[in-house]
Amino acid sequence: MMQFAKRMEGIKASDIREILKLTENPEVISFAGGVPDPKFFPVNEIREITGLVLREMGGKVLQYNTTEGFLPLRQAIAARMNKAGMTTQAENIMIISGSQQGLDFSARLFLDKGDAVVCESPSYAGALSAFRVYMPEFIEISTDDEGMNTFELETALKTNDNVKMVYVIPNFQNPTGKSWSLQRRKDLIKLANRFSLPIIEDDPYGDICFGDEKLPTLKSMDTEGNVVYLGSFSKTFCPGLRVGWLDAASPVLQKYNIIKQSSDIHTNALAQAEIARYLELYDFDAHLDVINETYKKRRDIMLEAIDKYFPANCNHTIPGGGLFIWVQMPEPANSRDLLLKVLQKNVAFIPGETFYPNEGIKNTFRLNYSNVGESRIEAGIKTLGQVMKNTI
Amino acid sequence: MMQFAKRMEGIKASDIREILKLTENPEVISFAGGVPDPKFFPVNEIREITGLVLREMGGKVLQYNTTEGFLPLRQAIAARMNKAGMTTQAENIMIISGSQQGLDFSARLFLDKGDAVVCESPSYAGALSAFRVYMPEFIEISTDDEGMNTFELETALKTNDNVKMVYVIPNFQNPTGKSWSLQRRKDLIKLANRFSLPIIEDDPYGDICFGDEKLPTLKSMDTEGNVVYLGSFSKTFCPGLRVGWLDAASPVLQKYNIIKQSSDIHTNALAQAEIARYLELYDFDAHLDVINETYKKRRDIMLEAIDKYFPANCNHTIPGGGLFIWVQMPEPANSRDLLLKVLQKNVAFIPGETFYPNEGIKNTFRLNYSNVGESRIEAGIKTLGQVMKNTI
After folding, report:
1. ipTM above 0.90, yes or no
2. Residue A264 is part of which domain span?
């Protein structure tokens, strides 16, 4: 029998994806996914733009393209980032095949076996899977309503000399929906500068914002070139084209470029041209307003239903944006047991344990509201609440 | 200053890509690339099909899709592979973001640091870069007109107990254009079975075949599930969409699937649907006939020009398909020095040294004929021959 590399021993198929398979039955009210509502995908716009791009560019857009990506798209992204308070340029941006790819590349660039990566507890499960390939140690730092506990982080950095990378989602985090306070953002930047550590700032949800004020990204506060910013079109435009981006200081971006070359040469060039043209011809901010209005309404309905139907001794977050609400049940409740029970009543969510790199906390779970119709949200939360009341 | 992982020390930007940047000047007659001629890309067909797919599938094709890929495309690929003498099914096929991604994934799956990978000497430079990330030892096996020297391979496998993977390109190899004889293919399968070794069979050029008879793939001879077959649409359809595939026995494919999940979740779904529809609605084999006729003509012109203009003490291969001719000059000629000289006369090629994982042989180089117009082939080879006669 052929042998696999040792790194494969620690890597399992995603729990979430296995649960999602069960939820393909249309009768299931699924709060499990982390996906946008496809009814907002710009299907007709992409159809028109593809015709336009192929007429204008012909075979050029179907030929091998540069590893760093299609320049007009990189320029458009730089313009959007600058408008959002960052200071960057197309030269610092590389297009990647979804921001997930940026997580794989970051671990490949910064982590040797046994090095430590710092992350929020809990954190995005897909990032943990991507990092695990490189066999690091995970140092989890607890989070509260202001984000990562930076005092605890400082202690961890002082006492562990093997930390090589910090991974955070400061805006409307997956899985909790929490956003970091301005102070915590400042604290993290100071610590990264002091310890010369790269911060991977994952920001797929920053544009899905229900309030008026946005807090500055870590990237916008970075004076030392320590922040690698990952952006995504998956939640705001559509995920199927697999286009995201990575912004880093030039010497760091060059390393990412070398990694990209040997990984998949470049990202689908037609998709890059399509998005560049979309950003040029359409009002993306108006599009964001439409989806944000809908997602905010769904969040509100879910929060109301939670207050109405969940047991009073459960806590939950109140996200100011993004796709998720995080629920904590009193101990010793177990969210995996709860899931098995509610699946029988055609409701699904993701147990919280999945989102911890080391030993998980068993009494938490994640709810998604972006891809469930308003009437089904109330019905699903009601069912879930009833099962919880009978169980915990 | 932030620290990079140790694996980055051995990884450099691709030589070839740096040279290709110099050849963007349209006055340069470039035999350097390994790219198909974009005039054959099905631009209009893709435009029509994209409209069709988006009208039929709507947002579904722009949503997150399954990691293994779009089922109708996997079915169409399985049908083509079966027609070509292999025995497979959609369940054994995973769609990847170009077959380059399959090289990265294969090294990730099979190679721990210090493990050995066996490859042909010389071999595809992009594969060597992809493997280097995982810090293996490279065992190069010499090749002759029948392909890899399998006697030498047997000795290597007997004397090295750290070999974990064999990487080969049996059809119209990059960089040499050589194809393996039937006997060598049989020998390799026997050795892989005897030593329980996975063979990565990279076959991007198999369909670019100038003769009538095709030799069976290793996949078609595999009875033990040791062969991982990598297929590509980049040379025959177009590279810009970044769609390739991987065929492996089920337990092995499951591992690749887990790797794909954490790498980029799935390959661009619109591109997958476009290619599936193309294979359904158009005659891909007729398309292959058209490009093969052209590339054969270009090969013939290049061979004729080589005979006419190159020094008589140079050897070269006569490829039966694919994109490349390999030239060996008498020692101590140095192809890097030659390149610098001919670049001044606006001709380019790739020095052979790039294609060796360990110490390279300096008197070889690779010529591409697929993306150079007929009249320019003769002119470029004439210039190259004149410089060679003055130099070596």
Report:
1. yes
2. 43-281
